[in-house]
Every structure is written in structure tokens, then in C-alpha cells.
User: What shape does this take?
Amino acid sequence: MYLDVVGQLDPTLELAPGEPAPMEKFVLAGTPDDVARQAIALIDAGAYRVEFGTPQGQTTEEGVALLCDQVLPAVRNGG
Assistant: This one.
């Protein structure tokens, strides 16, 4: 799995051999408010760019609507 490989290569994680990488360090998930807060935290930490992939658990149309209508305005306003 991609997360297993990337997690072991991440120098900010101190994983024991065979210990799985914590998924919450690699994904944005939750309600639109949760996702907005997570994205803002990344920007505040110095990220220049945050990418949103295909929303899981939603149709593409519903997921894009949530991003456009709720997540991105909250990120633009800083929370």
C-alpha cells in the first residue's frame, strides 16, 4: 500500500520497524468543517499548496459541491 511505503520514508515520523503510518498524517477527511480546519493547519504550517482528490463516500458531483460551497470559502477566510 502506498501509505506504508511513504510513511516509512517520512523523516518527520518516528515509526518502529513494521509500525503502520498514521493515516491522519496523510489525508484530509471528515466533515467540510473538519477538512477546512485540516487544510488551514497545513497552510499555517507552511504548505504552499493543498490538493483535494476525489472525495470518497460521495459522488464526484456532491464532493465537488461540498468543496466549492463549504470547504474552500472557509479556507479562504481562515476558518
